[in-house]
Amino acid sequence: MSDSPTLFDKIIRGEIPSYKVYEDEHVYAFLDIGPQSQGHTLVVPKESKAQLDELSDDAAAAIGRALPRLCRAVLQATGATAYNILQNNGARAGQAVFHVHFHIIPRFDDDGLSFKWTPGDLNQDRANELLAAMHAALSEEA
Predict the structure, then answer these.
(1) I need a surface site. Which of 8, 15, 16, 110 has the fewest CB within 10 A?
(2) Cα separation of 80 and 107, whole Å?
(3) What is the C-alpha to C-alpha distance for residues 55 and 58, in angstroms, rounded to an integer?
(4) 18-52 burial string, b = 16+ CB within 10 Å, else e?
(5) Is 28 inside any structural domain?
């Protein structure tokens, strides 16, 4: 990955204007200028990492504290009663700006937005394999 600043780094530093919703020591939130719906808000850590798994615990915790508060603000400001939180990691997952970011997308009746969800299958053998690998990975981090 490049060490050059991302679009979001430049927004956080004030080099590119934004419609700032919220800012604290670790988090910056602003209105998306290409919104999926009115009130679509981006929430980014000030720590410049491409993917969620790369964030420090402090940055991740700060995002976790800010997201519910920002969701409540988006709901109140827009009158929406539902919302999606979307977060992509890597180009294959649809990430376009390689700086961790969360989308808060307010939902309205007849907004025309949809997410296709096609459930797969999980059998017991595969579940046990996955659990063993994940538990091992978690114990290595501890």
Answers:
(1) 110
(2) 6
(3) 8
(4) beebeeeebbbbbebeeebbebbbbbbbbbbbbbb
(5) yes
Q: Which residues are catalytic?
A: 101
Structural domain range at position 81: 7-116
Taking alpha carbons only, the member of 108, 62, 120, 12 closest to residue 21 is 12
pLDDT digits over 117-141, tens only? 889 999 999 999 999 999 999 999 8
Give the 3-state secondary structure of residue 72: helix
Domain count, the chain: 1
pTM for the predicted model, two decimal places: 0.92
Please give the average per-residue pLDDT across 98-114, as a whole number: 95
pLDDT in the model for residue 115? 81
